[in-house]
């Protein structure tokens, strides 16, 4: 199944390092991050999971639950987590799905046969509280992802869902934001009391509304 932005993220039951999980029950009303990695006991994955664990407070601040996946056995996950905690100086508290039968990987298209016939690639989805898929990225096995970028996308999604704005290139929380083309400049001046800067009729900025 090929999942696209705006699709409903499919539910599943799975075995995980923290026991059996129903994906929707795990997410509840939170935002969610579901990410796959190629294999346990591999160096890049060790750094990715360790760093994600260190960001737990950041994810919690954004009302977001994290869940990882690879096609290894649950006992491997549990033993590898001890290594991650030791080497990355953290305490992994989120579940890692043991997708030995590849049921979830196939559901979410995490296996790209021309990259690897057996291992999952580095895919990551952001799922909103309505269970809609809002971000999909896929990286090769040899390139660790930038999880600070995932926080930045969460900030952008949560801001643009609440306020009628968009975020420009390399935007960081607190920077000026973009007024979408659907809003006239006259309307924008009423809607955004902090001010409107017109560079071109289609390129207009306003200070971030909620700061
Ligand atoms: C790693 O996580 O280090 C890794 C996994 C598969 C291929 C290359 C690197």
UniProtKB/TrEMBL annotation:
GO molecular function per UniProt: peroxidase activity
InterPro entries cross-referenced by the UniProt entry: AhpC/TSA, Peroxiredoxin_AhpC-typ, Peroxiredoxin_C, PRX_1cys, Thioredoxin-like_sf, Thioredoxin_domain
Keyword vocabulary terms for this entry: Antioxidant, Oxidoreductase, Peroxidase, Redox-active center
Highest taxon of source: Bacteria
Ranges where the Thioredoxin domain occurs: 3-159
Keyword Transport: no
EC number: 1.11.1.15
PROSITE patterns, sorted: THIOREDOXIN_2 (PS51352)
Oxidoreductase is among the record's keywords: yes
Family the UniProt entry places it in: Belongs to the peroxiredoxin family. Prx6 subfamily. Belongs to the peroxiredoxin family. AhpC/Prx1 subfamily.
NCBIfam families in UniProt: PRK13189.1
UniProt protein name: Peroxiredoxin
Organism: Chryseobacterium rhizosphaerae
Lineage, uppermost ranks: Bacteria, Pseudomonadati, Bacteroidota, Flavobacteriia, Flavobacteriales
């Amino acid at each position: 199944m090929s999942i696209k932005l705006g699709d409903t993220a499919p539910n599943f039951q799975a075995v995980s390092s923290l026991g059996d999980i129903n994906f929707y029950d795990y997410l509840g009303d939170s935002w969610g991050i579901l990410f796959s990695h190629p294999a346990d006991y591999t160096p890049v994955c060790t750094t990715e999971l360790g760093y994600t664990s260190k960001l737990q407070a950041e994810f919690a601040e954004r009302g977001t639950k994290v869940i990882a996946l690879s096609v290894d056995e649950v006992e491997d996950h549990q033993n590898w987590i001890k290594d991650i905690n030791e080497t990355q100086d953290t305490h992994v508290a989120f579940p890692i799905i043991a997708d030995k039968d590849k049921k979830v990987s196939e559901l979410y298209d995490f296996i790209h046969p021309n990259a690897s016939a057996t291992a999952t690639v580095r895919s990551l989805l952001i799922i909103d509280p309505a269970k809609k898929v809002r971000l999909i990225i896929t990286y090769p096995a040899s390139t660790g992802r930038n999880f600070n970028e995932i926080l930045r996308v969460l900030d952008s999604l949560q801001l643009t869902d609440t306020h009628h704005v968009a975020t420009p290139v390399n935007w960081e929380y607190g920077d000026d934001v973009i007024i979408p083309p659907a809003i006239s400049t006259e309307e924008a001046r009423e809607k955004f009391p902090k001010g409107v800067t017109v560079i071109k009729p289609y390129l207009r900025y306003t200070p971030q509304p909620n700061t």
